[in-house]
Amino acid sequence: MNRVETSRKTHTGRKLTLYQKQNLVGWAFLIPATLLIIWMCFYPMLRALLLSFQSGTGARMSFAGLKNYAYLLKDGIFIQTLKNNFIYLIIQVPIMLVLALALAALLNNPHLRLRGLYRTAIFLPCATSLVSVSLIFRAMFAVGGFVNITLMKLGLIQTDINWINGSGETARALIIIALIWRWTGYNMVFYLSGLQSIDSTLYEAAYIDGANRFQQFRRITVPLLKPTILLTAILSTNGTLQLFDESYNLTRGGPSNLSMTMSHYIYRMSFETVPKFGYAAAMSYVIFILVAILALLQMKVGDKR
Amino acid sequence: MKKLVSLILVLLMAMSLVSVSAVAEDGSHKLTVWCWDPAFNIYAMKEAAKLYKEIDPAFELDVIETPWNDLQTKLTTAGMAGDYSTLPDIFLCQDNAFQKNVLAFPDMFNDLTASGVDFSQFGAAKTAYSVVDGKNYGVPFDNGAVIQCVRTDILEQAGYTVADLTDIDWDRYIAIGEDVLAKTGKPMLSSTAGEPDMIMMMLQSAGASLFDAQGKPAIAGNEALKKAMDVYTTMVKKGILVEVTGWDGYIGTLVNSTVAGTINGCWILASIQTAKDQSGKWAVTNMPKLPGVEGATNYSNNGGSSWAVSSNCKNTALAYDFMSKIWGGSVAFYEDILPSSGALATYLPAGKSTVYSQPQEFFGGDTVFTKITEYAGKIPSNYTGAYYYEARNAVAVAMTTILGGGDVDAALAEAQSTVEFAQGV
Fold this sequence. Notes:
- The structure holds 2 protein chains of 2 kinds.
- Helix content of chain A is about 75%, strand content about 0%.
- The mean pLDDT of chain A is about 85.
- Chain A folds into 2 domains: about 10-65; about 75-300, MetI-like (MetI-like fold, Orthogonal Bundle), CATH 1.10.3720.10.
- Chain A has a two-stranded antiparallel ribbon.
- In chain A, β1 and β2 (about 60-65) form a beta hairpin.
- Chain A is mostly helical.
- Chain B is an alpha/beta fold.
- Chain B is built from 17 helices and 12 strands.
- The interface between A and B is medium-sized, with 33 and 34 residues.
């Protein structure tokens, strides 16, 4: 005993305590990821912010203060794309999340046969290539395409609907349909994993107390899934505001920019037309700020911990 | 662990050796090229290299397939970073994007005016796309001369021949179109909804542009543009022109005999000829001209691209020699690439070649290539301007508005202000 104590005393000058050691190990694990995030994420964000205060075409850039942001307010196309994004957000996200939750509740039933098959089938769309999905959707929703023929055979419409080029409403509806088809399964998986963590005895107790299935869903499932619902809501909001592929591939932003998203417009401004990177960076910051505000709102509303 | 470390070291050394050898090769007779389409541009470039090898046996050419969208993204990225070291020696550039890229990244291009290429031997309208401030920045390549392709069998049912559609104006074309539609039930032509190609072709056929010589938008009150919009809307309303969704839909109307013809850049011949069963039923002629517009002709241009020599080119003497001796000096080269790629040149001396005057079975034995080269020399130049894509997008919006019943003058005024706004950003 005595020997141990002396040996400890002799080393205290040079050796770290256990707490300090663990602390250092922790930092050592954190530093590579932190440095990578700073280098690949925060540094470009800072440069983009600086870029958004510059103006000019191509490589000839000069400092212009808030000119880009002032121009944004006067840019009819930008305001149109902003509106489009919010239409997608307000209509598509709630429909998709409710559907995903309902599907998850159904497919969580352990007595359901072929559960795995249904789950895979519903999840599969989000693992497909967006470009091929867009090509197939374009063909299916074309004039004289599969969807129009089916609707006509069912007697729901009299003449073909020109989904892609007919009007802003149909083009946006098409994008919303494509989004719901693609992302419902993805969100369902979050809910399914959330449901696994709910104790089945809660449902048994509720059943004994005389609660029907719907009451169980409302009073047990939804409150206990709240953190997951919050997560999916933030992810979907984020994804919808940054939407690019559907607008670019499916409707090409048409007709008359009525279905174009902000990200698509940023791409057009950077690479298709005369490069206006300063202006594009300013638009990116508008999206960034919007995402941040909406996420904050959702956390305030949804998270009562 | 030791093994792993030594392996990594060996790999690193191997990599540095590779990069050293690449540097050494820069001094040799090697050029790198970016372009797209293996059956067309890439094929032509490789054939050009074969021919140049006879002049310079040590010559080597490395063609890297780069689709236009990627190429433009790479140019923009390199330009914005101010680092041109990633660029190849020679790259292909869409004619419509040429002015824009030279304006945005003037240091990216080599001035080719004194490079030895004789630019007077190319179609004037074509060369104009790559001329900025009187300096030549591009060597013209493929031909975008507009042709009218018609189905002689469908016209015959309505009692017309190709001659009835040659050298006419749009008023006459619409009259014939109404008759053909009534008698055969087929529209005269199709176009992609939301794409203003047709309008742009009509505009250039009258020598008019969306910009004036100073680069200011000239959309509002542009008489040729108004007339073009009027002709287009009339045709859509009368059912003479059917609008379809997307490129595939457009090609579908041609190969499935939905329409009696089409008007487009001559590169459309390749797509038309995919319908083997329609051989002998097609004929080629010039497009109608805008009635009552000053300077109107039956000739226009749609699409096409030109070669640029990048400022990253270390061996400009070699690149210039290659471009001037083959692309701007060899009829044999253009004869060589025509049969298998259908790559029609804008190099005017090639049009007189016997290969160009071969009758084409598919087009009723007509010498279409001579015809097209002839058309190419008659196209009026127009001013693309750096803001071509902004203007094109704005005109597309105006077109949709006007088709929906909107006021022409108001729609064009809005397009004008959209472009003016983009120029102010």
